[in-house]
């Protein structure tokens, strides 16, 4: 695939004083989101099962950026999610944005996929998103409202081979986000879903290596002729968290280089 130079937004909305919780923040899309939110002036709570301290150090080393803190939690465990939300609210004094980004992918069709992989696909991707909303919404309510951002996938819009658990979970996230928008609009809480296409993260590149046919298909279908950069996705997340998107809720925002424009979805 030819690699074009991405155009990344240089002027960000002002999120000074906002507190953002990001799950899956140690690497990839979550890491890029943490850096971008900090650049927009927000305080960032980085939640991951892996150590997110190196990303906190990156944020701290940039002059003029506000504070960030790393938290260790497994989003598939509701008790851990409840605890980390409580810890963030205690440490920062408030929560304004919930960015449910943590995800996992297992290869396999319905007969190949073992029950543990099926369960973890749903637990991390779908239930993890639900748990962050369940325990985070009261914190948003306490400050008069806020924003929920979820990370789905183009695989949540159409069927993809040997990704049965991932497809099911990501499709669930899309409609879960719509349900959150319906239920909590009266609390001044907006919920929107980002649908990434092929993004050049460590995990995304690994998927292409494991399935060369997938890489070939993406090469044909991405209208812009390249994979997206995590920072480009992060700019959309910052926009959705800001007042610049104040009339958006229940939206499904595709950030995919035009890939899904080929499909009737």
Structure notes:
The protein has helices at 28-39, 53-61, 78-92, 115-142, 164-184, 202-210, 212-221, 230-241, and strands spanning 19-23, 43-48, 68-72, 97-100, 146-151, 189-196, 252-255. It is of the alpha/beta class and 265 residues long. Strands 3-2-1-4-5-6-7 form a seven-stranded parallel β-sheet, sandwiched between helices. Helix 5 (164-184) links the parallel strand 5 (146-151) and strand 6. The longest helix has 28 residues, at 115-142. It starts with 18 loop residues before the first strand and ends in a 10-residue tail after the last strand.
State the low-pLDDT regions, or none: 1-9
β-strand amount:
5-15%
Largest sheet: 7 strands, parallel
What's the number of extended β-strand segments? 7
Task: Give the SSE map.
Blueprint: E1 19-23, H1 28-39, E2 43-48, H2 53-61, E3 68-72, H3 78-92, E4 97-100, H4 115-142, E5 146-151, H5 164-184, E6 189-196, H6 202-210, H7 212-221, H8 230-241, E7 252-255
Parallel strand pairs: 1-2, 1-4, 2-3, 4-5, 5-6, 6-7
């Amino acid at each position: 695939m030819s690699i074009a130079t991405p155009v990344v937004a240089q002027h960000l909305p002002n999120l000074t004083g906002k507190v953002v919780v990001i799950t899956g923040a140690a690497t990839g899309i979550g890491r890029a989101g943490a850096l971008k939110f900090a650049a927009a002036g927000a305080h960032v709570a980085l939640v991951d099962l892996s150590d997110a301290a190196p990303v906190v150090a990156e944020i701290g080393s940039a002059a003029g950026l506000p504070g960030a803190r790393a938290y260790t939690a497994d989003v598939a465990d509701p008790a851990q999610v409840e605890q980390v939300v409580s810890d963030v609210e205690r440490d920062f004094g408030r929560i304004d944005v919930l960015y449910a980004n943590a995800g996992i992918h297992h290869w396999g069709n319905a007969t190949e996929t073992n029950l543990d992989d099926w369960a973890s696909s749903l637990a991390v991707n779908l239930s993890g998103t639900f748990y962050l909303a369940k325990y985070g919404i009261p914190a948003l309510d306490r400050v008069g409202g806020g924003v929920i951002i979820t990370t789905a996938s183009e695989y949540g819009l159409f069927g993809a081979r040997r990704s049965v658990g991932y497809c099911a979970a990501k499709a669930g996230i899309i409609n879960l986000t719509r349900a959150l928008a319906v239920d909590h609009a009266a609390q001044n809480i907006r919920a929107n879903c980002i649908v990434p296409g092929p993004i050049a993260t460590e995990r995304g590149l690994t998927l292409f290596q494991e399935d060369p046919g997938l890489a070939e298909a993406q090469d044909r279908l991405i209208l812009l002729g390249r994979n997206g950069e995590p920072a480009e996705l992060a700019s959309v997340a910052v926009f959705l968290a800001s007042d610049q998107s104040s009339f958006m809720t229940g939206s499904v925002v595709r950030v995919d280089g035009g890939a899904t424009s080929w499909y009737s979805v």
